[in-house]
Design a protein that fits this description.
Layout (H helix, E strand, L loop, with lengths): L19 E6 L2 E2 L4 E3 L2 E13 L12 E8 L5 E9 L8 H17 L3 E2 L2 H14 L2 H4 L5 E5 L6 E3 L4 E5 H6 L3 H16 L2 H4 L1 H18 L9 H8 L3 H9 L3 H17 L9 H10 L16 H15 L14 H7 L1 H13 L3 H14 L4 H13 L6 H15 L4 H13 L3 H14 L7 H10 L1
Parallel strand pairs: 4-6, 8-10
Antiparallel strand pairs: 1-5, 2-3, 3-4, 5-6, 7-8, 9-10
Helix pairs in contact: 2-5, 5-10, 7-9, 11-12, 14-15, 15-16, 16-17, 16-18, 17-18, 18-19, 19-20
Length: 456
């Protein structure tokens, strides 16, 4: 989206008359202005140009720019000093990092934790490609993948490979929120955050990660299988991006630029700040390694406030917005139903029962007779020792699952176990036998069920 008169132009918060500094990759150039760090920059009268270009007309897309100046009404950054260069800090590392990123992305895509449901992956990829700016598509081979992991995480590699965990996709509520997340990740690629921060990562984060693994220190959640798998495969770029992120200033820049990407793609930015509430509801406002955007980042509360201010100052004028992709909560959640169910099973296995329950309940709002969700909700009810009515609720769930699909074996197994615990041996035996008749011959718990049956 162009902002020819500067109205509604996004950028860091207005700061009265104080001097500010912007820096980043130049993304667009118009007759008298250029776009950097999501903001249109206009030289002030008598502005000092240093470096490669000595006037706006000689600045090219892809140049590195550092500008000092002040904000004016409407969001335009009036620059007193403009320094440009053909090369950005760390550019000598970019080729190496792109090659390594591509190799690591290939390993992730072929790994056991790659989530390959075709419709889900296509849905994520379509939204991801929609927020990638056109100029960047010729410079990077963007690809989007999904990782089977219940933590709330997403990360980008320098080659343009972007991955989202099932845990995050299962809790995002609509297309606009996902567009904000993927826009944020795309910014890490387009702004070359990997190369720009490479030296710091080498001297701080990676040695700490390696040391933590050597001494057995838990990196975030000690059951985070993705972190363990990435460590075992030696995916250093992946660990750096997924665990530590790119540092506070670059993460904050990705929030700003990523929001511009989603707005220019036609998404409504209004739901975006709600993402930070989702994080707080899940983890609280703390820095944990399993949370995306974390590490050295601003807190969730601060980032939510920053995004709300961005919207209020720069995207609140309906006349300046061209929303061609309205908020689509119903469509998004329906598209994610297989993933939401699968991720809730992962939450259940990790004993994150409240999160698992919320996920299965979301599935049932769209598929009220889904036997797997009903069965798992019954199991969660049975495990809820603080609820006096847990056994009747569990039994009701199991029986409804069987009524929905009599050939779903797990519902028979769980109902049989519940009845056995209540000394209802005859019906318990019938249900356990039914499970053995329906379950695959290589079901891992067949031996256990036979042993339970023998005790009855």
């Amino acid at each position: 989206m162009d902002w020819p008169d500067g109205r509604g132009d996004p950028g860091p918060a207005l700061a009265g008359g104080s001097s500010k500094k912007l820096q980043g990759i130049v993304e667009r150039v118009q007759a008298d202005r250029f776009l950097v760090d999501s903001s249109w920059v206009v030289p002030a009268s008598g502005a000092l140009f240093t470096g490669k270009a000595r006037q706006v007309g000689r600045i090219k897309t892809g140049y590195w720019a550092e500008v000092d100046g002040k904000w004016r009404e409407g969001g335009i950054f009036r620059a007193d000093r403009i320094k440009t260069d053909e090369d950005y800090p760390g550019h000598t590392f970019q080729g190496q990092l792109k090659s390594q990123g591509l190799q690591e992305a290939d390993k992730i895509g072929k790994g056991k934790q790659a989530y390959t449901h075709p419709e889900v992956v296509a849905y994520v990829s379509n939204i991801g490609m929609s927020v990638v700016p056109e100029w960047a598509k010729s410079q990077f081979k963007f690809q989007f993948g999904v990782i089977r992991d219940p933590t709330l995480n997403a990360f980008a590699l320098p080659d343009g490979s972007i991955f989202v965990h099932t845990g995050l996709l299962a809790r995002v509520e609509n297309d606009s929120q996902l567009a904000a997340i993927l826009g944020h990740e795309a910014t890490h690629v387009t702004q070359r955050h990997g190369a720009r921060g490479y030296k710091k990562q080498l001297t701080t984060f990676l040695p700490a990660m390696i040391g933590a693994e050597i001494v057995g220190t838990a990196v975030g959640d000690d059951k985070n299988s993705f972190v363990k798998a990435a460590t075992a495969l030696g995916l250093n770029l992946t660990l750096s991006a997924a665990v530590n992120g790119y540092g506070r200033s670059q993460e904050d820049q990705a929030d700003r630029v990523g929001m511009r990407y989603m707005v220019e793609a036609g998404y409504d930015p209004t739901p975006a700040p709600r993402v930070w509430d989702i994080f707080n509801e899940t983890y609280g406002d703390q820095s944990k390694v399993e949370n995306f955007f974390y590490g050295n980042h601003s807190t969730n509360a601060a980032r939510k406030k920053n995004q709300q201010e961005e919207i209020r100052r720069h995207y609140s004028d309906p006349a300046a917005l061209k929303i061609t992709r309205p908020v689509n909560e119903e469509g998004y959640q329906k598209a994610m139903l297989p993933l939401t169910r699968d991720n809730s099973m992962l939450d259940f296995e990790a004993k994150r029962y409240p999160l698992a329950k919320a996920g299965f309940e979301r599935v049932l709002r769209h598929l009220p007779e889904d036997p797997a969700s009903l069965t798992y909700l019954g199991r969660i009810a049975r495990l809820s020792s603080d609820q006096p009515g847990r056994f009747p609720e569990a039994e009701e769930r199991f029986r409804k699952a069987i009524q929905s699909d009599p050939r779903y074996p797990d519902a028979h197994r769980e109902l049989g176990r519940l009845l056995a615990s209540q000394k209802k041996r005859s019906e318990a035996k019938a249900q356990l036998k039914q499970y053995l008749d329906l379950a695959p011959v290589d079901a891992p718990d067949r031996r256990d069920v036979r042993a339970e049956l023998a005790k009855l």
